[in-house]
Specification:
- The protein is α+β, with helices and mostly antiparallel strands.
- The chain has one domain: OB fold (Dihydrolipoamide Acetyltransferase, E2P), CATH 2.40.50.90.
- The strands form 3 sheets. Strands 1, 2, 3, 4, 8, 9 and 10 form a 7-stranded mixed sheet that branches.
């Protein structure tokens, strides 16, 4: 009988922890809507706040790629394609983490359509933590930047002295977990300050 009680207590504790973790994960999430300004193929701005599309990495605005032996402005084209997708209206961006540059990491959707996914599927961004299957399809089809040769955006930034925009995805390390919790806390505080009008 004692073993059954111990198993029940352990299962109950795990259930409480799981429910608490799910609740906390949603606590700092924000949904943003409006007329976003596209900065490049994976960055947006609305008012004074900047947003980065989570799980993707698009060519930098000034980055060029090679197509048929000639350079072409793939970074500008990636931004143009994101503008096209965002211009279709009804966009909602949701995120719960802030990167080290103060940008909210978001997944943007128009209804059920995932804009981040679409950018990778059409070949205008590479997978960066998500969307690996979409990247494989874009590469196989020669879509977007996969039509020729290019440097991955993170490599291009390193070679050209641009600020490294990579974010700590958190991972499973204690430091990653602490960083994620701190980001959620900052986001929650920012939400509360906006709610109270401070």
């Amino acid at each position: 009988m004692r073993k059954v009680a111990d198993y029940f207590a352990a299962a109950s504790l795990m259930l409480v922890v799981a429910v608490g973790a799910a609740w906390f994960a949603r606590l700092g999430e924000q949904e943003v809507r409006g007329a976003f300004r596209v900065l490049d193929g994976d960055s947006l701005e609305l008012g004074t706040q900047r947003y980065r599309l989570q799980g993707i990495d698009a060519p930098e605005y000034t980055q060029t790629c090679q197509r048929n032996g000639a350079a072409w402005p793939c970074g500008r084209e990636a931004a143009r394609q994101l503008r096209r997708l965002m211009r279709q209206g009804g966009i909602a961006c949701v995120g719960g983490e802030i990167d080290k540059y103060g940008r909210l990491l978001v997944v943007c959707r128009r209804g059920e359509a995932d804009i981040n996914r679409q950018m990778v599927l059409e070949g205008w961004a590479v997978a960066f933590g998500n969307y690996e299957a979409e990247e494989r399809l874009a590469r196989q089809n020669g879509s977007g930047i996969w039509v020729g040769d290019f440097e991955r955006p993170r490599d291009w930034r390193e070679l050209h002295g641009k600020a490294n925009e990579e974010t700590d995805s958190g991972g499973s390390s204690v430091a990653g977990l602490a960083n994620s919790l701190a980001n959620r806390g900052r986001l929650w505080l920012r939400s509360m300050a906006n709610w109270f009008g401070e």
